[in-house]
Every structure is written in C-alpha cells, then in structure tokens.
Design goal:
The complex is a heterodimer of chains A (442) and B (381).
Chain A: E1 16-17, H1 43-48, E2 54-60, H2 61-73, E3 80-85, H3 87-92, H4 95-108, E4 116-122, H5 123-127, H6 132-142, E5 147-153, H7 164-171, E6 185-188, H8 200-207, E7 211-213, H9 221-225, E8 232-235, H10 241-250, E9 255-257, H11 264-277, H12 286-303, E10 307-311, H13 312-315, H14 318-327, E11 331-336, H15 345-354, E12 359-361, H16 367-370, E13 380-382, H17 384-390, E14 395-396, H18 406-422, H19 428-433
Chain B: E1 4-5, H1 14-22, E2 28-31, H2 36-45, E3 55-58, H3 63-68, H4 72-85, E4 90-93, H5 96-100, H6 105-116, E5 120-123, H7 131-145, E6 158-162, H8 166-169, H9 174-184, E7 188-193, H10 199-203, E8 210-213, H11 219-229, E9 233-235, H12 241-257, E10 261-262, E11 272-275, H13 278-291, E12 297-300, E13 313-315, H14 319-328, E14 331-334, E15 347-350, H15 354-357, H16 368-378
Parallel strand pairs in B: 2-3, 2-4, 4-5, 6-7, 6-8, 8-9, 9-10, 11-12, 11-14, 12-13, 14-15
Classes of the chains: A alpha/beta (442), B alpha/beta (381).
Pfam family, one (chain A): Oxidored_nitro
InterPro entries (chain A): Nase/OxRdtase_comp1
Protein name (chain A): Nitrogenase component 1
Chain lengths: 442, 381
Amino acid sequence: MLKPLGHTAMPTSPAVTLKSAQFPQPFADGLSYSVLSCGGWPLVQTGLLLPEAHLIFVCPQNCLRGVVLVAAEMKLSQRFSTVAVREQDVISGDMERLTIDGVGEIIDHLAEKPPAVLVFTNCIHHFVGTDLEVVYQTLRQRYPEIQFTDCYMNPIMRKSGLNPEQMMRRQLYSLLTPRPKVARQVNIIGNRFPMDPHNDLYQLLQHHGYTVKEVPRCETYAQYQTLAASSLNITTLPMAQSAGTLLADKLEQPHLFLPLTFCYETITENLKRLSDALDLPREDPAPAIAACEAALKAAKKVIGATPIAISFSACVYPLSLARLLIEHGFNVTKIFADSFIPTEKADFLALQKLAPNLQLYPTSQVQMRVLPKESSGKTLAIGTEAAYFTGTRYFVNLIEGAGLYGFDGIVHLMALLQTAFLEPKAPELLNQINQRGCECLL
Amino acid sequence: MKQTAQIIPSYTGDTSGVCSALYELGGLIVMHDAAGCNATYSAFDEPRWYTQESLVFVSGLTEMEAVLGDDQRLIEDTVAAAQKFQPAFIALVGSPIPTVTAVDFPAIAREIEQLTKIPTMGFNATGMASYVSGAGMAFEGLAKKFVLPQVPKTQAVTVNILGVTPLDFSINGADQALKAVLQAQGLTVQSSWAMGETLSNIKQAAGAKVNLVVSATGLAAAKVLAQKFEIPYVVGLPYGPAMAQQLAAMLIQTSQDHQNRIFCQAVPASDTVIIGESVAALSLAKALAATTDFKATVLCPVDTFPELLTAGCIKARDEAELKPYLQQATTIIADPLYQPICPPKARFIPLPQEAFSGRIYRQAIPELVKGFTTFRRNFGL
C-alpha cells in the first residue's frame, strides 16, 4: 500500500470498456507514469545476450545511470563500460572525438580484447549531428580484429521509424557474417528468452532433423556466428521483424514471421507456412487442439469464475489470449495495455461482442499512479503490470511469452495458470522483477 | 582519459536529483524527456517509489517536438495533469535534449503558473551533472519561491536541516535520527528539507535561527536563506555523540554571531581515502579523526562547493582521476561498486550510497548519525 500524498485531488479511473474503446490506441497521449514492476526489459539486457561482446554506452550521466546499474545488478559490469557526455562536449560539438577516444580508451584497457563491441549512442548524438559513419569507420580501422556495431539508446526516436526496441533487436544480428549454409538448420530470432524446446516450432523442426539456433542459447561468440549458416529465420514477435528483414538482405536468409498468438486457426496456419517453407509434410493439428481443449478445461475447473487480468507485456497479443480464455468460459475482466498490435483487430472486434464490458486499463497514464492497487476479491493476473495494478499475489510472471508458443504454449500456460491460482507469490517479487525480466533472471 | 568508466557506474544525475528533493512535498513534477529519465528514476534513484505516492511524470518528448521547438504539448499535458491532481506546486525539470534545444523552463513555468494559478518552478537540469546539482537547485527553488518572510522567531534555537534526500541518506531512518540528535542537544527542528516534511512547514523556515546543511545539496538553499532572511548556516553532520555535542555548540554559536561555519573538515592523509559526497564524507573523516587514529582524505566524485574543497577534500570525478589516489591508499572507505578499481592490497570498507549503487546494497547502507559507533566497531576502526 502506497503512503498517500497530501494536497491532491483524486482523479477518476482512466479505464474504458471494450465496447467504447478505440482501436488500436484506446487512450490519449499525455504525461506518462513509469509503472512499477513493468514487464519491460532495458536495451542493455538485450545487448548483453550477445556472448563475449563488450558494451560501451556513450551518453549523458542521467542516461547512463539506469543501464550501468542493470549491468551491475546482473553482475556483468565487466562486460560494460561508459563514456560520459558532458555539457562542454555538446557545446564544443566534437562528439566524434569523444566517442572514438572514449571507446578506444576503454578497449585499450580491457584485459582481453572482445570479439565484438556494441557502441550505444543516444538522443544527444542525433541532435548534435554526430557523424557516426566517421566514428565507426575510425574504430574499425583502429581495431580491425574487433567487430563493431552501432546500437542506439535514443527513446526520442520512438515515434520516428524503427523505435529503439526494434533497432536493438535488429542490431543484435548485425554482426553475423556470411558463411556457407548448413543443411537443416533454422534460426528463431528476435526473442529475449530462449524458446521452450517443447513448443510447436521446436517440435516440428526437430522431428524433421533440423537444428534450431537462438541467440539466448549461445554461450560463445563463435556459436553466435553459426546463426549465419542457417537457411531460414523465424520471428514470432512484431518488434523482431526488423531483424528478419536485415538478415534476409544481408545473409539471403528467408524470413518467416509466425506471430505468437493464441488462436487455433493462426497457429495452424503458422505451422503450415513453416512446413511449406521447408518442404515438410503438413501435420494434422487435431491432436494438438484436443490437448489444448483438455488443458483449458482442466484449468477452468480449478480457476472457475475468478476474475483474470492480462498485461500486454505478458504475451504482446493480449486480445488473442483474452479471446481464447473467454471463449472457454474464463472470466477475463481487465486488460492492461497502452495500445495494441494492429493485427489484433479481429480479436478486438470479436471481444467487443463477447465481452463488451471487459475493462481496458492503460499502464502509463498519470491516473494509474494513484489508482488503488487492489481488487475486491481474488484475482488471477497474467503478467507483471496486471499483478501490480490489481494488487494480487496470484500471478503468472510472463514476459513476451517467455518461450511459450503455439498449441504447446497454450497447454503450458494453462498449467502455469493453475499453479499461480493455487500458490500465492510474495509481492516483493514484483519489485525484483522490475528491470530484470522474468523470475528466471532473479 | 577523463569521462570514461571501465567498470564503475554513474552517480544519479541532476534530473533525478530535482525529483528526489521535491518528492514528498505534494507537487506535480514533470521531467521533460523522451522516456528514459523516469524509468531510471523510479527503478534506481527513488527508494520511496515503492512505498510512497508522488506525482513524478515524464513528458514523452518526441523528435519532432524537439526539432520544431514545440513546447505546447508539454504545457497542455502539464496543465491537464494539474487539473486532475490539484497539486501544491508544479516543477518542470530539464534533461539532455531540452538542454540542446535550449528550452526556457523558467518561461514555460511562468506560462503554466498563469494558466493554472498553481505555483510553478522551472529547473534547467541538463542530465549531464550530478544529483547534487539537481537537488541543490530544487532546494534553492523552494527557498526562493515558498519560504515566507516575517515568520516570528521563538526563544528556542530553531534549526532548518537542509539537504536531506534518500540519495545521500537512504531510507534507513537517518532523516529521523538527525532530528532526534539535534533535539537531544536542546535544539528545535523547524523544518527538514525534504524527507518526512511538508511544504507548509518549509514555508515557515524563516522562523529558524540557524540552518544546518547536511549535504552539498542544501548549500545553495542555505545561501538564499542567509541572503533573504539573514539566517546563518553550519555545514556538517553529527556522526556519533561527540560530534553531535560539538555541532550543537557550533549551531548555537552561529545562531548568535551569524558567522557561517564549516563543521566538517578532514585531517588529510594519503593512506586512507573516503569516496563520497563532500559533506557526508568530510563529516565521517572528522568523526573518525576525533575518535580513532584514522586520518583520511576525501575524494569527492560529485558536484560540491569551492569552500568544501580543502586540502582534505579533493574533487575526483572519473576513474582516471580517482585511480592515482586509490593506488596510494592502504584503506579505502567507499561504495562497494568502487572496489573493482581499488588495489587488491588495500583494505576496503564498504559504505554504500543510493546515489551510486542504487538499490543493490540498500540493506547494507549504515545509518551513521546514531549508528556511527556501531559502524566503527563493525569494521574495527
């Protein structure tokens, strides 16, 4: 319970019902609140997925502060360095010199030269017109044994082309260098968590003798480079598509976007598309759908009519998940999302008929700061924002699906829901999850 | 080369510093930034975020607004939020990009104040200076904008404590310990800027006879209060019973003769160094020198004032500036995240600070006002 602040009026709830909501932006822009226990993941953590790489952030102090402490909390400070941009650098305008010399100084003092260096510049480089081409050209000449890539922590560009999140997921793959293709090897790219090897994609691929490569499973830089030998890239999240596009151009690897949804038809279609792309026989989805139905039934038996709240960050396709649950008799009452993926329109329209009074809540609107973080009775939450705002101790800690996918993902999720319903978690866990991702990282 | 950090983190920046200073006072605080500053603040710079409401938000500045110099959305969104919350005041806080595009925060503050009739302050934080600068400008702003003139003074020796934020004092009860120690010495605390305090109490600060500056963040406000209300100040912290007694005597003397004084002064020695904010580190050095054989030089990696930079307090901001002093040291008292750049042979005594290591060592941050003796004993000092 937050200690209340005096001298303020209590604003009304910003929630809207599904029947009256606009799609895909149900809420107006305004000042934003930084939600506690967000399901987000700082860029630095994505960069640190690249094994053996050294990360160097060249930013003002206020911008360095968060990323440097994320690395410290992950006990990975030895892979992380900074160059502070100060006011005199902005005034002098010689940001190229600062960046080149600063990065060089750090590399020169490393005990071992890393195979790759990720240099993060930020909003300020963009605004003072830093010639990044000169920066990287010079660094590559000075350190030919090191691969450099340009990364960006520039949230000011979030509404101008690719946002920092999409850029980071793309740049993580920019260091792959062309090599001969290996038979029966496929990449799943753009995910922060390794895929569950039981999920539909893995099972289909492994059943036909394919090796699956993913960056979160790489332990060495050499292993990372083997992704360049794959014959196909699969992405499952919208923000990962830029990585697929990059590698299609750079390495001539075809790209298949097979979205992480909870719709039987879409999952079936996704698996068909994958089979067709690799000339594999199509599999009958009926047994897998039957398994889903059984899992949903079992979960419903345990959870009953308990209200369920879902976060956008839990699965990126919260409307698809809500629709699946509601169509199977679950009582989904709240969705926490600031906006939706445009391809969820069909689910949005379907839910307007199925559950017109389902409430949509923003996560970052100012009113959310003072909204009581409680529920009238037991609530089951999926995702951290839903857990935080409903004040429940019964929640599934899930971020971006956390490796679950397809029919198997649904079966697995139903098991997680039952466990979460029966076993309360310590509320402090939410604070720890904030900025670190899933429980698996704690 | 200066400005590089191979492994150590950055101190909290000035944007967060402003927010930390004003957090508990019932204001609407708007960081004018794209997105990152608020997440950093809530996750790493503000331990009260989890337990105490506040109205600290971010404007969500976009590329086009910055390029076009469009301040209108900032004004409209701030006014809209102010209408929702009816805050006690509004504070606009700068960050790196508004610095580059030269946003005139004081002017925007005047416009918002006219529109809302709510007192509004604009702070030209750059995101490129330390929290000391940010919290300092916030306290200075409070002193200029809110402290009422002609508040009657009582017979008692009344004291304002200036410069209290969790960035220096964490949330381990140090703010309350400060009040209690002064009261135990027969002094009356008028206000504490600004933990466990209200804006209405701060408005009455001119009723104090003397100000106690307990971190460099409070010194600019002390100078304003000295100039506007002729309240003299003493700089220092009462670490341990002996220091409490000495400091109280100095406060009483200062309230009478109106001579500003620096209580915290180190007896320099190159073999022992303390890294930290100037007032806290100097006070620790003084307390150690008074009670043990330890003499220590303070290395101050954040902003401070020239009058605190004596032979016993050296400004050393970057790894390159710190390392030569650390190489000579046999004992180092510092935040644990400094340890990787300290010589392995040196004795390292951990003294975590929120403004450096954030929440990582929060549970181990000692409360030194009442707990100085325990700290000394724990480390055999």
